Amino acid sequence: MGLTELAEAEVRLVVREQVVAEPRIETRAVSYQVGAAKLVDGVDLQAYAGEVLALVGPNGAGKSTMLRLLAHELTATEGEVLIGGRKIGEYHAKDLAKRRAVLPQQTVMQFAFTALDVVMMGRNPHIENGWPGPEDRAIAEAAMQETGTLEFRQRIYPALSGGEQSRVTFARVLAQETPILLLDEPTASLDLKYQERAMQITRRLAAEGACVIVIIHDLNLAAAYADRIALLHHGHLVECAPPASVLRSALLSEVFETPLRVIEDDGQLIVVPSRK
C-alpha cells in the first residue's frame, strides 16, 4: 500500500470512529423483577462520552431501578449491563468505583462526619496507601467550591439542611473524578439557584468528556440541559432521543396521564400543564 492509499485508509478509519462511537455504558435487554412485578422490562440503552442523558418518567416508571442497575447496586434478572464493552459484574469494586460515581436520592450519615469528611470519601478509590494526600484534599475542596459548600466544610453533615446535604453529596461525586456519573435527582431539595448550578455542572462534565446519566423530574430542566432524554413508563423504554423529539404534547400527556403542552419560548422548549 502506497502512502496515498495509507493516508486515505487512516482518514476512513478516523471518520468511522467518529461516526460509530462505542457506548461508555449500556444495557442489553435488561430486566429486573421482584416477585411477579417487572420494575424494568427488556431495556436497551446506550450512553456515550460527552453527553448528558436524562431519565424521565412518572413515579414508578423504573428510573431509580434503572440507575441502580447501571451502578451495579442491583443485578439484572435478565440481560446485561456493560461498561466499556465489559460486563459490569467482572469489575472489582475499586475498579468500578474509578469508572462510575453514584449520587443516591438520599445519603444518611449516623456519625458526626464534617461536610469535608463526606466529600473526601469520594477520593477513596484513588488512595493507594490508606491516607489521602494534599492533592486529594485540593480536589475535594475544588468540588465543594463548585457546589457552593466550601464555606461550611467544617460543619457536621447531619446538622445541615436537606439542600445543603444534597450539595455536599454531589461534591463527593465530583471529587471521585470518574468518567461516568449516575445521578439520582441531583436537583431535589435545591432552590432554583442551585438547581441551575447542578445542571450547569453536568453540562461542564459532559463538555470535558464525561458520560452523565441523570434522573430529573423537572422536564424543563431536562429540555434545557440534556443531550438526549430517555422516557420510561411501567419499566419500558418508550423513547430515547434529543429533547425536541421526545418532548411532544401527546406523548407526554399519555405517559404522565395528565394533559400537558409543549411550547417554545425564545428557542427553548417548555412543558406546562394544560389547564382549562
What is the level-2 CATH architecture name? 3-Layer(aba) Sandwich
Supply Rg. Answer: 20 Å
Q: Count up the helices.
A: 10
Assembly type of the shown chains? single chain
CATH topology: Rossmann fold
The H-and-E topology, N to C, reads as HEEEHEEHEHHHEHEHEEHHEE
Strand ordering within the main sheet? 6-7-8-3-9-10
Outline type: globular
Helix content, binned percent: 25-40%
| Uncertain residue segments | 1-19
Number of strands: 12
Structural category is: alpha/beta
Number of domains: 1
Biggest sheet architecture = 6 strands, mixed
- Could you give me the name of the CATH homologous superfamily? P-loop containing nucleotide triphosphate hydrolases
| Residue fraction in strands | 25-35%
CATH class: Alpha Beta
**Average pLDDT score:** 92
Terminal CA distance:
71 Å
Explain briefly what this protein structure is:
Helices cover 37% and strands 26% of the residues.
Describe what you observe in this structure.
This protein is α/β, with parallel strands linked by helices and 276 residues long. It has a single domain, classed as Rossmann fold, CATH 3.40.50. It has helices at 3-19, 63-71, 93-99, 115-120, 134-147, 162-176, 192-207, 219-225, 243-246, 249-256, and strands at 25-34, 37-47, 51-56, 78-83, 86-87, 100-103, 180-184, 211-215, 228-233, 236-241, 260-265, 268-273. A six-stranded mixed beta sheet has the order 6-7-8-3-9-10, with helices on both faces. α5 (134-147) packs across α6 (162-176). It is globular and about 55 Å long. The N and C termini lie far apart (71 Å).
